[in-house]
């Protein structure tokens, strides 16, 4: 009986270890939910998950939810986040994919640098939000730039509309308009039309 009991005990330990392994694997799978893939990259770009080493990104490499994508000096990267959504990153830009539903809503964090977000119609059922030290951007199916522009943090909308919140104030920015946030915690300025020169400068920084 002791041998049988010992055998059952060993089997229980093996089963428990197997269940633990499966649980960790499932947890890892959830942490590695796909968000999209790299469409183009110039220079150095990396993706890093919490507790993991950075991996160098190449064209067609996947990017996952909970990863942070970074570009180096003079680098550019284009992420295809589904069939209808493209995210362009300028040089020395950092974006964390906190939560993302392909071609729908989600939450991103812009840690620095410049981005160009482009989503083709139709409008998604859920808003996408992009947060940064400068404020919060709520996106509803649109094309817009966000990042450094002439000494401030600028948001320019090419098509569609976004809401920009900072310092307790929210402004709604429409096509052809932009808003400025002078520093983290400051209010966004009232939207105005950007001139062709400024628009060209902003878009050139992410293309």
Can you walk through the features of this model?
By secondary structure, this protein is of the alpha+beta class. It has 2 domains: 1-31; 35-204, Jelly Rolls, CATH 2.60.120.1440. It has 2 helices and 18 strands. The chain has helices at 2-31, 196-204; strands at 34-42, 45-49, 55-56, 62-64, 67-71, 76-80, 85-89, 94-100, 106-112, 115-119, 128-132, 135-139, 143-149, 152-159, 161-166, 169-174, 177-181, 192-193. The strands form 2 sheets. Strands 4-1-6-7-10-13-14-17-18 form a 9-stranded antiparallel sheet, with helices on one face. Strands 3-2-5-8-9-11-12-15-16 form a 9-stranded mixed sheet, with no helix packed on it. β2 and β3 form a beta hairpin.
């Amino acid at each position: 009986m002791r041998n049988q009991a010992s055998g059952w005990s060993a089997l229980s330990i093996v089963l428990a270890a197997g269940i633990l392994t499966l649980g960790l694997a499932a947890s890892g799978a959830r942490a590695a939910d796909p968000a999209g893939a790299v469409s183009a990259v110039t220079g150095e770009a990396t993706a890093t998950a919490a507790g993991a080493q950075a991996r160098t990104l190449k064209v067609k490499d996947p990017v996952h939810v909970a990863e942070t994508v970074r570009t180096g000096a003079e680098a550019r990267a284009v992420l295809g986040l589904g069939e209808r959504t493209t995210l362009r990153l300028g040089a020395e830009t950092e974006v964390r994919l906190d939560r993302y539903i392909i071609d729908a809503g989600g939450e991103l964090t812009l840690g620095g640098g410049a981005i160009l977000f482009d989503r083709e119609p139709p409008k998604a059922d859920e808003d996408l939000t992009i947060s940064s030290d400068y404020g919060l951007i709520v996106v509803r199916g649109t094309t817009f730039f966000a990042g450094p522009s002439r000494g401030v943090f600028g948001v320019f909308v090419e098509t569609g509309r976004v809401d920009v919140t900072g310092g307790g104030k929210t402004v709604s920015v429409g096509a052809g308009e932009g808003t400025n946030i002078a520093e983290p915690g400051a209010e966004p300025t009232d939207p105005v039309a950007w001139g062709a020169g400024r628009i060209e400068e902003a878009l050139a920084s992410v293309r």
